[in-house]
Amino acid sequence: MTNPPGVISLRNVTKRYRDTTALDGVTLDIEGGKIYGLLGRNGAGKTTLMSLLSAQNFETSGDVRVFGEHPYENDGVLARVCFVRESQKYPDDFKAGHALKAASLFFPGWDAAFAAELVDELQLPLKRSIKKLSRGQLSAVGVIIGLASRAEITVFDEPYLGLDAVARQIFYDRLVSDYAEHPRTIILSSHLIDEVANLLEHVILLDAGHVIIDDDAEAIRDSAATVLGAADAVASFVEGRTVLHRETLGTLASVTIDGRLTEAERAGAAYQGLELLPVSLQQLVIRKTKKQEHTERASASPIRTGARQ
Predict the structure, then answer these.
(1) CA–CA separation, 27 and 68 (whole Å)
(2) pLDDT of 145
(3) Superfamily of 8-218 according to CATH
(4) What is the rounded distance in angstroms from the CA atom of residue 103 to the CA atom of residue 31?
């Protein structure tokens, strides 16, 4: 299935919990048929945003639309959305097999054969009580449901954190291969940014309830650089640019700058004996969110990463 553009739309959405503002005037459009990375530090608003999309909560103000309708208490929308979270709760008497059976009854696109393959690959004991599952086995239940549901919108709120490295790689490989055969909208929230970076087609970065990056992953990869070399030459090269991070060691300096460099600028750096290093997505997220701690926001509008700030 291929979703039409704009399957999710938020307009000036704010969510408050007593004295805490989890989302603050968020405006966002999520197109169909892409793998999105929803990134940010703890408390940035990621889980709140996903809870609004899956109708496990509702906004304080603003407007949330999924498939053009408000999702809260909307069975028609909810049957098309699968939200799997790390802290997923199940009835006390459930076994792992019961959780998969319940999911098969709820999601019309459920693929039982695919689920069985994943059970085998992730070595999930179906007859074991949910309460007796290890953290990794409980994570396996979540990722199997998320993948085998084939829901038009599938949201993973870090349910795979409990998996070991081998099991996580199985999850990533199966997600990519099944997505290629059955395109849908997938939203991954993860702190393992370097692990998932190559999976992502679009990145949304939240910080303190605001969207500070909303751009295609390919554009983001070249949106910053680290300049390394003699301190005086580095200082001259980065003058007038937005600096995300700066380190000095004696006569050497390493400065991470925001903004895409032209070929002429790269040639100029080489002429001055400076080295230009790429910035990983994880490092960019760290630098952007740390910078926000020390910078007063002029507005809540998303930063387009291709523009110099």
Answers:
(1) 15
(2) 96
(3) P-loop containing nucleotide triphosphate hydrolases (3.40.50.300)
(4) 25
